[in-house]
Design a protein that fits this description.
With 196 residues, the chain is of the alpha/beta class. It is built from 6 helices and 6 strands; from the N terminus they run βααβαβααβαββ. It has one domain: Rossmann fold (3-Layer(aba) Sandwich), CATH 3.40.50.1240. Strands 3-2-4-1-5-6 form a 6-stranded mixed β-sheet, sandwiched between helices. α5 packs across α6. The longest helix has 17 residues. It is globular and about 55 Å long.
């Protein structure tokens, strides 16, 4: 018997921090005008997908979308901290220029060294996202996950069976969605686009 799962990955709308080029992992930021418009489009996309459940990071920039979509679907979003953004450690809240001025160094090539001092590594985020997906995606179900760029990259890499090194192969714009169908453990990208 064929076992199928459907996952809609959703990256939160554009924020002021995104426009400013700030590293915001565990912090939060307000939506831009474009982000406000994207939020409405993302809610519509989630509702059209018709998920059995809407999961979300605890951060406001994801919760706004997840709460609105779940309300329209007559449900309550499930908050899971494993869908929080990559922890940027000492780079949190800084622009790239500020990290250079303060001597913060990045490592986007290693799988096990934190991306920035005091933060998470590529493997850290990949493993927590893979664990969360294994816990929440049941056979025959459709789930929507409203999350962040790093989690989105990790999830798409895991679900499509790509190597860990592929995490940085995807440019996930704010307001992006990916519809992934997993049949008997084989992931297929059905749709990938940016809204707004």
């Amino acid at each position: 018997m064929t076992e199928e799962r459907r996952i809609l990955l959703v990256r939160h709308p554009e924020t002021e921090a995104n426009v400013d080029g700030r590293f915001i992992g565990r912090g939060d930021a307000s939506f831009t005008e474009r982000g406000e418009a994207q939020a409405r489009l993302l809610v519509d996309a989630i509702v059209a997908f018709g998920p059995d459940a809407v999961w979300t990071s605890p951060l406001r920039r994801t919760r706004v979308v997840a709460d609105a979509a779940a309300e329209q679907l007559g449900s309550t979003p499930v908050v899971d901290a494993r869908f929080s953004e990559l922890d940027f450690g000492t780079a949190e809240g800084l622009t790239y220029e500020q990290t250079v001025e303060s001597g913060v160094t990045f490592d986007f090539t290693s799988e096990d060294v934190p991306v920035a001092p005091g933060g998470e590594s590529r493997r850290d985020i990949y493993e927590r996202v893979a664990e969360a997906l294994a816990d929440i995606v049941r056979p025959g179900e459709r789930v929507a996950i409203v999350t962040h760029g790093g989690v989105f990259r990790s999830a798409i890499t895991h679900l499509l069976g790509l190597p860990l090194s592929a995490i940085w192969a995807f440019h996930i714009h704010n307001g992006s969605i990916a519809d992934i169908r997993v049949v008997d453990g084989h992931g297929m990208l059905e749709e990938f686009r940016t809204l707004g």
